Structure formats: C-alpha cells, structure tokens
Amino acid sequence: MALIAGSLYFWKPAFVVVVTVAILVGVWEFKQGFAVKGIRLPYEPILVGAVVMLVGAYVGGAPALATALAVTALATLLWRLRGGVDGFVRDATAAVFTSAYVPFLAGFVLLLLKPDDGPLRVLTFILVTIASDIGGYFVGVLAGRHPMAPVISPKKSWEGFVGSAGFCVAAGWFTVVYLLEGDWWVGVVLGMVTVAMATLGDLCESVIKRDLGIKDMSSVIPGHGGLMDRLDSLLATVAPTWLLLFYLVPVA
After folding, report:
1. Structure confidence at residue 125 as a pLDDT band (50, 70, 90)
2. Mean residue pLDDT across the chain
3. SS3 for 1?
4. CB 2: neighbour CB atoms within 10 A?
5. Separation of alpha carbons 19 and 231, rounded Å
C-alpha cells in the first residue's frame, strides 16, 4: 500500500509501472490456471499487449486502450496458429478473455489517473471498492445467515451484501464529496454501482476457479493466494467507476 500511495502522489508514471507489473503477474496466473485444464494460453502476445494497453491508456486515453485490445486479440489468434488446429478455438477464446478481463479492465485505472486530479480519483475508486469487502466481511461474519450463492461461494451471504452496500454508499458519498468535490448523490450512485459490480466480480472469480478445479489462482501472496484473488473486485468495479466520474464529476 505504501508503494501504491507513494507512486500515486509523487510520480504518476511510477504508478503506471506498479499497475503494469501487477497485471503481468495476473496474466501469468491465468496461464497457470488454464494449464490445469490443458488450455494453452498464447502467453507472449498477451504480455506485450498488456503493456501496450496500460501505457496506451495513460498516454492516449480510451481510444488507445480500445485499439490496443483489438490488436492484442488479433495477435493472439495469429500466434496460436503455430500450434495447429487442435484446440484452437478453446485456446483463442481463453486468450481473448484473458486480454479483456485483466489488462483491458486494468487500463481504466490509468484512465482514472490521467486527469490532473487523477490520484484522488484512483484513491476514491480503491477506497469505495475496499469498503465493499470490509462491510461484507464484518456483517457477514456477525450476522450472515442466508447464503447468496451456496454452490459458487458458500461464505457469501445476503446479510453480508447489505453490509457491503451500506459501507460502499457511505464511502462513495464521503470520497466524492470531500476528495473530488462532487455532488453527494453521485457518491451514493457510485457506492450502489460499486457494491453490485464488486459482488459480481467476486462471484465470477469463484466460478472461474471452480471450473478450473483450483483453490487459488497462485500462491504469490503467502496465506492469501494469488494476486488475481485480490484484484477481482477492483477489476470489476473500475470501468463503471471511471464512466461515472468522467461524466458526473468535473476535473477539479
């Protein structure tokens, strides 16, 4: 967290590097996870594409990010041709999915960073998303009785979701009003959208791991699993966060 905070406030390009390294690790985790099911991810073009997407988002904005995703998808298809016909659709689909889910969504973090008040926008995004996890955990542990999706994620409860919603709305209101000087209702909307997307991100990550037959995406974080196990909510919430703030909160 100290590295993230320091890079945010002292030198924006350093934060771009931090995000890029994290996403490259995330792509590697997907490669390892897919390999369990015999899926051969076209790894090298996704890594190059990830760097281009992230740097492009910071330097060139949304058009550069979208263009880089399209070129990366085509490059992965061409790269996979070397492996022959068998499993082509399976591997190519996994490649496009990984490119869109990991580096493309992460590119919206750098779109948040791009304006003059970008560090505050990124901080708002992180705090509101973390509020979802904190609220869901504490209320779920204390009062969780009704499972939300017992087959997918047995520990998630409807009571925990209510706690997530309350914490997210409060965090959204506070950060938008006091950090970004925006309207209070924008913060409330941000909180509501965030809790829905963060919950969806958690559930989707659980489904992916169950389908692959793995407990964690990797063990790069001792005692906490893989990096993608920590980034699932953030990746799910960042695009709608950028959209709301871009249109509803003027740059300070």
Report:
1. very high
2. 88
3. coil
4. 6
5. 11
